[in-house]
Design brief:
Elements: H1 3-21, H2 27-42, E1 58-61, H3 67-77, H4 83-87, H5 117-136, E2 148-153, H6 154-158, H7 160-171, E3 177-183, E4 186-187, E5 190-191, H8 200-207, E6 210-216, H9 220-232, E7 238-243, H10 266-276, H11 287-293, H12 296-316, H13 318-328, H14 336-349, E8 354-355, H15 356-370, E9 374-378, H16 382-385, E10 404-406, H17 411-424, E11 428-434, H18 442-451, E12 456-460, H19 478-483, E13 489-492, H20 496-508, E14 514-517, E15 522-523, H21 530-535, E16 541-544, E17 552-556, H22 561-573, E18 578-582, H23 586-591, H24 594-600, E19 608-615, H25 620-623, E20 628-632, H26 641-647, H27 652-664
Parallel strand pairs: 1-2, 2-3, 3-7, 6-7, 9-10, 9-11, 11-12, 12-14, 13-14, 17-18, 17-19, 19-20
Antiparallel strand pairs: 4-5, 8-15, 16-18
Helix pairs in contact: 1-2, 1-3, 1-10, 2-3, 2-9, 5-7, 5-17, 7-17, 12-13, 14-15, 14-20, 15-20, 17-18, 22-27
Length: 665
């Protein structure tokens, strides 16, 4: 059967689904179908019957607006994606949403759509493959051995994150990363010549990539030859520059932005059928074409061959085999819970007044011994973030067996690469920067939450306590932004114990990312009994209580807990009943049942004071109409931290005065 007919099956499933939904992007699937046919028919190693097979190749559609291309490929090759699913494109709760979404559709490796993040995720996947192979493969037993392929478009290359991620990919010699550029010269505004004239091949050669230029994306033999060349280069990632025509086959809309972001229209769809000689009705694929596309038998054979290899590996290296399987299944070691709990108890029993960034490093140095899949890094701030633990070994271009990545000044790239590592499996990625610079990475953090993946974002220098660097570096509204992100958990511990618990909870959380917020300055350790120690994991708990019903509740987190405790002690000496609630993780607290929330914050106690050196608006709901928030309502200033805390009202005297005022009202 002609390759053209196989490619046309992709084309017409795509444009018919877009037409039925009257929404979508038909031009890119029409243009990329030939490239996709070559890759998926002749090169991609996958098993539709087992989309989570450890050693499958990964495929990322970075230009995720062309999602019907991917859905068509998954359907044709035999994944659990029916023709009815394709007909339900872009409808509520369908398996074929407007952009590919991880967890919705079997075979979709990442949620893509925000341009550039897909290729960054692919860099993370390739990095994970290289590191996992370096840690587990043995002579003659390459149990981790697969490629990462990505399709990307002009928009992905215009986004700055493509520079951050692809630059690092070249530096780390990710030779099993192969990107195919859909070079169609079109974006939504039209031909890109007026705003995108980069010499892209030269740019990628400068990164250290192999570049295969001048490939006709509609010529299967040229695409196949380029893929062969790419697979043979193991010291450099490869960019294959495929010249394509957007809207290929459309008489009136090919090579035009008119085919980019809206349905072609019934008349134009009919003309495409006539032009390409496709005589079948919408969503009608002849059985001979289905038979040619079906990858289940080939995929099962490839997986069976790998299973034989893995069985030999397990016979010779049983401990390593068990570790690889455990990590790939995202399971923690059997001794993890006992060991981490014991460590936290020891911290409580041996108080130390540390900056929580120091407590974080201390916890990491312990936890890495029990959870070797922790794969850390920092965006050029390791000495400040203290993300480099005592057993850190750098991943280098020529030795990927380590556990620490120097990401350079690439906060956005780091975060999206971390997401790719998490999606690949085998590692729990974490990466650090200043909390203020979360803003550079904001969309990748959001994508981690959307995909429900275990990425751990470490943010230090968490308030005006950063000091002299001033408001450009002092976070104010960032904590609120993180806490308001659906499916995020944001931990801001008040001492070394809560810092360690935050790490424990982030490592154990399988269905979403965590943001761990740490201080630059030392914090006083708080006393707790065994029950309070256990209650930290609930996100909010009573740290200091009173006899009887409280007259006032002071809610706080992080460095401001000391102010809350001071005020409570002073008022208790005056006969006032004051409760202090530590709220290290608001999101976790709000997931507790109503009984727990009421036991900590009784609704009848309306006098509440919230103290936190972040934007005050977030906390007004907790303070209530009869309460007060001692927080930030402006940006910071440049001065020593102690001066700033006093200037903005975060002092013992201010806290006590605010509490007294509430009790007096």
């Amino acid at each position: 059967m002609e390759q053209q007919q196989l490619a046309n099956a992709i084309r017409f499933l795509s444009i018919d689904a877009v037409q039925k939904a009257n929404s979508g992007h038909p031009g890119a699937p029409l243009g990329m179908a030939d490239m996709a046919t070559v890759l998926w028919k002749d090169f991609l190693k996958h098993n539709p019957a087992d989309p989570l097979w450890i050693n499958r190749d990964r495929f990322v559609l970075s230009n995720g607006h062309s999602s019907m291309l991917l859905y068509s490929l998954l359907h044709l090759t035999g994944y659990d994606l029916s023709i009815e699913d394709l007909q339900n494109f872009r409808q509520l709760h369908s398996k074929t949403p407007g952009h590919p979404e991880y967890g919705y559709t079997p075979g979709v490796e990442t949620t893509s759509g925000p341009l550039g993040q897909g290729i960054a995720n692919a860099v993370g996947m390739a990095l994970a493959e290289k590191a996992l192979a370096a840690q587990f493969n043995r002579d003659g037993l390459p149990v981790v051995d697969h490629f990462t392929y990505a399709f990307l478009g002009d928009g992905c290359l215009m986004e700055g994150i493509s520079h951050e991620a692809c630059s690092l990919a070249g530096t780390l010699k990710l030779g099993k990363l192969i990107a195919l550029w859909d070079n169609n010269n079109i974006s939504i505004d039209g031909h890109v010549d007026g705003w995108f004239t980069d010499d892209t091949p030269a740019r990628f050669r400068a990164y250290g990539w192999q570049v295969i230029d001048h490939v006709d994306g509609h010529h299967p033999q040229q695409v196949a030859a380029a893929l062969e060349q790419a697979r043979n280069e193991r010291q450099k990632p490869t960019l294959i520059c495929c010249k394509t025509t957007i809207g290929f086959g459309s008489p009136n809309k090919a090579d035009s932005h008119d085919s980019h972001g809206s349905a072609l229209g019934k008349e134009e769809v009919a003309l495409v059928r006539e032009t390409l000689g496709w005589t079948h009705a919408a969503f009608d694929i002849p059985q001979p074409i289905y038979a040619q596309w079906d990858a289940r038998e080939k995929g099962a054979a490839a997986q069976a061959d790998w299973q034989d290899l893995f069985n030999r590996y397990r016979d010779q290296y049983p401990e390593e085999a068990a570790g690889l399987l455990r990590r790939s299944l995202k399971q923690l070691p059997d001794n993890w819970r006992h060991n981490s709990q014991d460590y936290i108890r020891q911290l409580q029993d041996h108080p130390a007044n540390l900056a929580t960034r120091q407590a974080s490093q201390k916890a990491l140095s312990q936890f890495i011994q029990w959870v070797p899949e922790l794969l850390g890094g920092s965006a050029d701030l390791s000495p400040s973030n203290l993300t480099r633990h005592s057993q850190a070994r750098d991943i280098t271009p020529d030795d990927a067996s380590g556990n620490y990545i120097s990401y350079g000044v690439r906060e956005f790239g780091m975060s999206a690469i971390m997401n790719g590592v998490a999606l690949h499996g085998g590692f729990i990625p974490y990466g650090g920067t200043f909390l203020m610079f979360m803003e550079y990475a904001r969309n990748a953090v959001r994508m981690a939450a959307l995909m429900k993946i275990r990425s751990i974002f470490v943010y230090t220098h968490d308030s005006i306590g950063l000091g002299e660097d001033g408001p450009t570096h002092q976070p104010v509204e960032q904590l609120a932004a993180l806490r308001l992100t659906p499916n995020m958990e944001t931990w801001r511990g008040c001492d070394q114990v809560e810092a360690a618990v935050s790490w424990q909870q982030a490592i154990e959380r399988e269905n979403g990312p965590s943001a761990l917020i740490f201080t630059r300055q030392p914090l006083e350790q708080q006393p707790r009994d065994a029950r309070q120690l256990a209650n930290i994991a609930k996100g909010g708990y009573v740290l200091r209580d009173c006899d009887g019903v409280p007259e006032l509740i002071i809610i706080s987190s992080g460095s401001e807990i000391e102010l809350a405790v001071y005020a409570a002690i002073e008022l208790a000496e005056q006969g006032k009943r004051v409760r202090v609630v530590s709220m290290p993780c608001v999101e976790r607290f709000e997931k507790q049942d109503a009984a727990w929330r009421e036991s900590v914050l009784p609704g009848a106690v309306r006098k509440r004071l919230v103290i936190e050196a972040s934007i005050e608006g977030f906390w007004r709901g907790y303070a209530g109409l009869d309460g007060k928030v001692l927080g930030m309502s402006s940006f910071g200033e440049s001065a020593p931290a102690a001066v700033l805390f006093g200037h903005f009202g975060f002092s013992k005297d201010h806290a006590l005065a605010a509490a007294r005022a509430l009790l007096t009202d």
